[in-house]
Amino acid sequence: MGRPPLRRMSMAQMLPNLLTLGAICAGLTSIRFAVEGRIDHAIFLIILAAVLDGLDGRLARILKSESAIGAELDSLADFLNFGVATGMLVFMTMFHLENSLGWIAVLIYVICCVMRLARFNVGIKTPDADAIPGYFTGVPSPAGAMLALMPIALQHAFHSIPPIATPLMALWMVFVGWLLISRIPTPSLKLVRPRAEHMRYLIVGVIAMIAILFTWPWEALLALDLAYLATVLWSFIRSRRRLDRKDAR
After folding, report:
1. Which of 225, 144, 224 is nearest to 180 (CA)?
2. pLDDT digits over 42-87, tens only?
3. Quick one: which of 145, 132, 105, 137 has its CA closest to 118?
4. Which one, 46, 50, 216, 225, has the greatest CB density within 10 A?
5. How far is it, in rounded angstroms, from Cα 190 to Cα 31?
6. Which domains does the chain have, with CATH numbers?
7. Which among 129, 147, 148, 161 is positioned nearest to 87, based on CA atoms?
8. Rounded to whole angstroms, how far apart are CA atoms 38 and 117?
9. Greatest CA separation found in the chain?
């Protein structure tokens, strides 16, 4: 039997994979900037990687260029950018390089990140019967990375506050790792389906958010993290109430 014909792809259909590779480059460069002490640039590249991560999958679906290689690349990029690069950035910024407690906390965070990604990949092939449509199970890795970076944003936004104690920072990293592998249902952007007549307001809001991020980056990142934590708390309370009603039946 002959080999099956190779599938030809246009340059446009290759764009999602190029975005994923660009995100990987952003994550690797973030590690370099963290080593050099250029924290602002390093965090910006993590945020850029998160934006590219949100675009590549949607673009692949629009262009009908989804592939097994693209899915594997996306998962590897998420582990590098939101696990390894974010963990190294936090370690070099918030912990002393010789701090063993900080390194253990970072290791726990990164391991939780890779476990969360593995569970997500398995869930694609074998859907979880208990999963809620339109919700993630646990905090997704890009959001987890933003939460891990929140103490850095806090210290840059408010210079007058004292440095965060190492045990407290280590506890925060472990807590974020737990959020990644938890069973808490967290909302997905797929739930956002604005009406056509409201799109102009959404576009204006997104532009305003981008302008705020460029004007007050640390304060904006901190505010977004706090808003997301409030959303996770709301989802947790709602899921507990749903389970209580289910058990009461």
Report:
1. 144
2. 999 999 998 888 877 777 777 676 777 777 888 899 999 999 999 9
3. 137
4. 46
5. 31
6. 11-190+197-243 (1.20.120.1760)
7. 148
8. 28
9. 72
